[in-house]
Structures are given as C-alpha cells and as structure tokens.
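Holo prediction — magnesium ion.
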Amino acid sequence: MDYDYLIKFLALGDSGAGKTSFLYQYTDGTFNNRFISTVGIDFREKRLVYRSQGHSQRVHLQLWDTAGQERYRSLTTAFYRDAMGFLLLFDLTNEQSFLEVRNWLDQLRDAHHTHAYCEDPDVVLCGNKCDLEDKRIISEQRAKETAEKYGLLYLETSAATGQNVSRAVEMLLDRVMRRMEMAVDCAMLPGRHGGPKPGAQEANVILHPPHSTCGSC
Ligand SMILES: Nc1nc2c(ncn2[C@@H]2O[C@H](COP(=O)(O)OP(=O)(O)OP(=O)(O)O)[C@@H](O)[C@H]2O)c(=O)[nH]1
Ligand SMILES: [Mg+2]
C-alpha cells in the first residue's frame, strides 16, 4: 500500500449535468463534446498529496461516477453509503437540473441512516457548464442562495475549460480530511473510548484509511 488514505467520492446529479465530463477533466485533463450517457456506475482514480499544517499525506482518490438517468437509481443509490463526500452537479443552462438538486439531497439523506462513514456527509454543489455564459439560466446568486439554504459549498465549474474542477474536488477533500482529523482528535481525548488514559503521553497517531470519519464528538 503506497498511500496513506483511500478516499471515495461520488458524483451525482441529473443526466447531462456533466458528471462524467467533470471527472474526466479532473483525472485526465480532457473533454469530449459528445454525450455518452453513463450506464449504471463507473469510476475514475487519481493520486494526490494532501498538505495541511506542515504534514503531507498521500491520497488515493476513488471517484464514483453515477448514471443520472432515473432507471439506474436503485443501483446507484446503493453506492452512496460507501462514499465519504459528494459532488452534486447541475447544469447552469438547464433549470430542471437545478430544481432537482433538492431531490438529490433527499435521496442522499435517505441513505444517511445506512451511511458507512457519517450521517451528515460533505457535499460540494457544482453549477457546471459555466463556460456557456450566453446560455446560462441559473444566476450565481440564485445558486449560492440554494447552496446556503442546504448547507452546501458552492462552486461554478466547467468540465470543458477545467475552471474550478480541481478546486471543487480539493475543497471536498479538505472538508473530509478535516473531519477525519477531528474524529482522530476526539478519539484521543482522555476518557474517550480508545483514547489514552488521563496522564498518558500524547500518542503518535498513524492514520490509515478510516473506519469512522464522523467528526461530531
Ligand atoms: N460546454 C460544456 N459542455 C459540457 C460541460 N460538461 C459536460 N458537457 C457536455 O454535456 C453533455 C453531457 O455530459 P456528461 O458528462 O456525459 O453528463 P453526465 O452528467 O455524466 O450524464 P449521465 O451519465 O447521463 O448522468 C456532453 O455532451 C458534454 O460534452 C461543460 O462544463 N461545458
Ligand atoms: Mg455520465
């Protein structure tokens, strides 16, 4: 194993919003104008180094790409429980895809009680296709208000030009890594299950792919 963390993210949102294009842009730096709708589920991978407070961690990112089409819904929602964070995409030139954001969040919440890592996972909302400014229907203000209402981070992205694509993934990674660090800190508090006894020396924590990333302690 030549990485410190295996992190699983999942992209969701309406068919045509640009999930597959976004992930290809992120992992390969390429973009294809042709629309080949995803059948079921797919994934892409990327290695990166996460730096925080002077430490470097080697991260293996697994990016699950779900089909937006309704007919695959029962298959794709089964993958929600293993994801540590979510990229929720809508198309800035398509009002319906924006209105569906609420439904996608409801489906995420339905999966919460069976979620393997956390009851309240981190979500970055991406208003995609921001390169198509002349076709834009959803204003940045409107999208930001929605993101705020649902407690999501928001970025305008373009899978075509690459604008904010890496930033969206890195923002999500930062949230997830902070959550994990908090979970470890909580576990190490005196008197907590698995933590050092009062008076014990501070332990050296070696971090491996987490089993519990929920930072609410
Ligand atoms: N101009 C522009 N076109 C985009 C962008 N992202 C995706 N597209 C185009 O939009 C279409 C749909 O993109 P996909 O990435 O296949 O959409 P998807 O969300 O994966 O769709 P499903 O697999 O059906 O759920 C394709 O023709 C892409 O080339 C973008 O940021 N800008
Ligand atoms: Mg797709």
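READOUT: The helical segments are 19-28, 73-77, 95-99, 101-112, 140-149, 165-187.
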